[in-house]
Amino acid sequence: MSIILNIETATKNCSVALAKDGITIACKEIAEQNFSHAEKLHVFIEELLSESNLKFSDLSAIAVSQGPGSYTGLRIGVSSAKGLCYALNIPMIAIDTLQLLAKQIQIEDGIIIPMIDARRMEVFTAFYDKNHNQIRNTQAEIIDETSYQEITETIHLVGDGTEKFKNTLTDVKFVFHSDVVFPSANEMSHLSFDKYQKCDFVDVAYFEPYYLKDFVLSK
């Protein structure tokens, strides 16, 4: 039996889930305008363990969302995962953030484009088929009226980055799934268990989040 702690902090959603053999048994999350990850993350972890009658020593591995996403959010999540893995001497698993968004919807045809807001008219995106297999590399791209003109299939859009394009991407092929806004640790359970079974771990000492863009200071 494996018990994996899943941590998702790449966006405004501070999300933590406990999973047993790939099935979520408990989840806590909160999405706030002002990032509260530093205050809420470890509180959520301790509460989940306590409510599930588990101890840190019961954990088999820790999975963390690797990005792309918020620089600050990713640093907090990855740093916390590294510290716990090092202290508990257990493996760390990295999960792609955009894949977590894509897996929140089921489609019969077309492609899924998850979008994470990267400020202004830019988003972090990737393409996934109906089976949630990635079919285009992750990119930071600026969206305008000419975007995705070459695609004739139905395009399913998910994520917090989609809202600002509802008046830009107006072709009937675009379907906005407004109920899917943020990635969640709840969606990590199956993915992290699959990687755990394959011993697909990352190096705790040298792993870095997938920022995609350089950190820019602002006033």
Automatic annotation (TrEMBL):
Enzyme class: transferase
Acyltransferase listed as a keyword: yes
Domain Gcp-like residue range list: 36-149
Highest taxon, organism lineage: Bacteria
GO MF annotations, alphabetized: tRNA N(6)-L-threonylcarbamoyladenine synthase activity
Enzyme Commission code: 2.3.1.234
Keywords on record: Acyltransferase, Transferase
Pfam families, per database record: TsaD (PF00814)
Stored InterPro entries: ATPase_NBD (IPR043129), Gcp-like_dom (IPR000905), T6A_TsaB (IPR022496)
Name recorded for this polypeptide: tRNA (Adenosine(37)-N6)-threonylcarbamoyltransferase complex dimerization subunit type 1 TsaB
This protein's encoding gene: tsaB
